[in-house]
Every structure is written in C-alpha cells, then in structure tokens.
Here is the input.
Amino acid sequence: MNKIAVVFWTGTGNTELMANEVAAGAREAGADVSIFNTSAFKVDTAKEYDKFALGCPAMGAEELEDSEFLPMYEQLKPLISGKKVVLFGSYGWGGGEWMNPWKEDAANAGLVLVDDPLAIENAPDDDGKAKCRELGKVLALS
Here is the structure.
C-alpha cells in the first residue's frame, strides 16, 4: 500500500499551494493521497498512512509555527518514526534557514527523509510548483 498524508499549516496560503502540488505529484505517481490542514488532521490516525509530507512556513525568528503545527508535529513524531517523510514550506525572509533545524530534528526523531526539504520564497511560481510535484513523486516512489 502507498497511502500518503500531506499535513500542512499555512498563514498566507503559500504553503497550502505547495501542499496541493506535493499531493498532485504523489497522486500522479500512483499514491493514495489525503491532504489535511493541521487543524483537521487527527494525530491518532497516523497509523493509517505509510508516508507523510509535512509542510510548515517559516515563522517569527525562522521557526516552525508554534500554536498549531509544532504541537501537532511533536505528537506525531514518535508515531511516524521509521516512516518515509518529506518536509516543505514557504518563507518570506531569512533565506529558508528554518528548514535546517527542522530537517535535523526530523532525522533525530527517526523520520526517514527521502529527499531534501523544499523551501520556497513566498508563493511558488511555475518552477516552484514543478519542484513541489517532483517532491510528491519522490515520496510516492520511495
């Protein structure tokens, strides 16, 4: 089975655009994909999915959004340790540095990162959308 959950938080809509493209790429590669905003995702359903695409923009001082995404992510990590995962998100300043500690944290928690995280400045343009779709395909085919 190749069942993927795309779980994201967005403030401006940019990371949601990315999530939709990641999901589309995974579907194109044959995966069964469900997409959730963090407020709609139930952590106790994690066992129903084989793989995860997690999306969160850079917030504040280059960190994960801490009122919805971070608490959900902290609960989710032990449940998906050993599962294949990709990380993505948008940023408006700082060059996307928030992705480096997130990548390290995910790896330390036992998440199996199947590709480099994808950070896109502001809304994804056509090239950015293509990169999102490719990330989804990589996850689906991993």
Notes: The helical segments are 14-28, 69-80, 99-108, 126-141. The domain at 3-141 is CATH 3.40.50.360 (Rossmann fold). The first strand starts at residue 3 and ends at 8. The two ends are 12 Å apart (CA to CA).
